[in-house]
Amino acid sequence: NQFTEQLKCLDLKLDIDSTVVAELQDFYRRRASVEQDYSDALAKLANGLKQRHVNETTKRPHWAPYTATTIWNTLLGSTLHLAEAHATLSDIFSKQMVQRLADMDEDAVRLHKQVKFLFCCREMMSSCQDRVLANTTKLQADQREYAHRQAAALEADRIRRRAEDKLLAANQKARSKGKDPDNSQRSMRAQNEFDLVSAQI
């Protein structure tokens, strides 16, 4: 039914979202590793050149005042800054991004459970309403049937009482004339009518 299909769609969405989040986490872990490797390589390059310059300072006594030396120092400094920036980026990717994605996945699972619970509650409410409606409809039908039978019983009792009154009146009239009610035509007709009515009730 529609409820089952909606739950399937919710489950499928959660499955897709969780898969995408897991792949993003893996991507950022790998990206963090790449950024860290690049940072380490840049730092190694710059520090290696600086160390070589320190080791050969005696052979390079006149480097300081020249523009080329300034450019060289600036290049080493910017390379070290770039190495630090990539190390920071690696840290952001490996910790903050991966953790944020894990939090998002937990939030999605929690929200999925809440929505699923609400869907189940709605379905149960709908089912209860259907049962209440069915029971109410049946009760109304039973009440109508009871009222119909009650009316029929009252009408049958009224007809029986009228037939009984006729029989009593016929018997009384026969006795007042000194006749035996069992032999009176009127009494016999009234008795037959009473028996017929009684048999139908």
Helix content: over 70%
Mean pLDDT: 85
Overall number of domains: 2
The assigned structural class equals: mainly alpha
Low-confidence stretches: none
Number of strands: 0
Question: Into which percentage range does the β-strand content fall?
Answer: under 5%
Computed over alpha carbons, the radius of gyration is: 52 Å
Short description:
With 201 residues, the chain is an all-alpha fold. It has helices at 2-55, 67-176, 185-200.
Topology readout:
Elements: H1 2-55, H2 67-176, H3 185-200
Helix pairs in contact: 1-2, 2-3
Q: Could you please describe the fold and organization of this structure?
A:
With 201 residues, the chain is mostly helical. It has helices at residues 2-55, 67-176, 185-200. The chain folds into 2 domains: 2-108; 150-200. It contains 3 helices and no strands. It is rod-shaped. The two termini are 50 Å apart. Residues 169-201 are annotated as: Disordered. It comes from Schistosoma curassoni. Residues 1-93 form the FCH domain. This is FCH domain-containing protein.
What key phrases describe this protein's structure?
3 helices, mainly alpha, 2 domains, 201 residues
